[in-house]
Amino acid sequence: MVTTLMTYAGAGEADGLVTRTGGIPLAPAGTGWPTCSTCEGPMQFLAQVVLEQQGRTMAIFMCQNDPGMCDEWSPTGGGNRALLFPATGLEPIPLPALGEDDEEDVLQLGAVHIAAFEASPAADYASAYTEWGGREGNDPAHVLGQFGGQPAWLQGDETPACPGCGQLMGLVAQLEEGPDYATAMNFGGCGSAYAFACTPCDQAVFLWQC
């Protein structure tokens, strides 16, 4: 079994059609910015994952308007969103209008981190992470996560069932918080996140554990 690591490959364009964290999400024209089901505020855009073989992209959002209060870790609580789109004909989603008292940077991570894909012969993500981070010149903090494979759960197995067909969904990506504390995603300060999809049903689910 091969584990595909996603590693930090430097800064990139905010609207690039690449796998990245941060920047601006790409979507079909007319797509609105997702809002939280609890507080009804606009969510923070976390990551875009390109699924070339499926001809799809995934955009991942999470509420950070009042961290910890909107069940943003839950796959069903309404505090996050993972959306699947066709990989062609995409354009940046316009940023939502914010009130004068809102902090405009709450919706963005502040930096774009491009992901490179590196195949590891390690049988699981934890082993691949440790092996890559232990190489001379590598920084373990530059592991952004894994692409596909089997989730390395920090708590119990929470593999979701597709809300469309009921089948267990496949892991698209496991994400770490990021290499830079100032622009890190908030998964409890020490957590990992998991994005799943059922491409036949065009359904996606996101959750995190710590």
Report on this structure:
- By secondary structure, this protein is mainly β.
- Helix content is 4%, strand content 34%.
- It is built from 1 helix and 12 strands; from the N terminus they run E-E-E-E-E-E-E-E-H-E-E-E-E.
- The chain is globular and about 50 Å long.
Jot down its keywords.
210 residues; two-stranded antiparallel sheet
> What percent strand?
25-35%
**Which geometry do the CA atoms define?**
globular
Low-confidence stretches: none
Record the strand order, biggest sheet.
6-5-4-2-8-1-9-10-11-12
What is the terminal separation in angstroms?
A: 26 Å
Helical content (DSSP H or I, runs of 4+): under 10%
Structural class: mainly beta
How is the quaternary structure best described? single chain
State the order of secondary-structure elements, H for helix, E for strand.
Answer: EEEEEEEEHEEEE
CA radius of gyration: 16 Å
Number of helices: 1
Number of strands: 12
Q: Which whole number gives the mean pLDDT?
A: 93
Largest sheet: 10 strands, antiparallel
Summarize the structure.
The protein has one helix and twelve strands; from the N terminus they run ββββββββαββββ.
SSE map:
Elements: E1 3-11, E2 20-21, E3 26-28, E4 44-51, E5 56-62, E6 80-86, E7 90-92, E8 113-120, H1 125-133, E9 143-147, E10 170-175, E11 192-198, E12 203-209
Antiparallel strand pairs: 1-8, 1-9, 2-4, 2-8, 3-7, 4-5, 5-6, 9-10, 10-11, 11-12
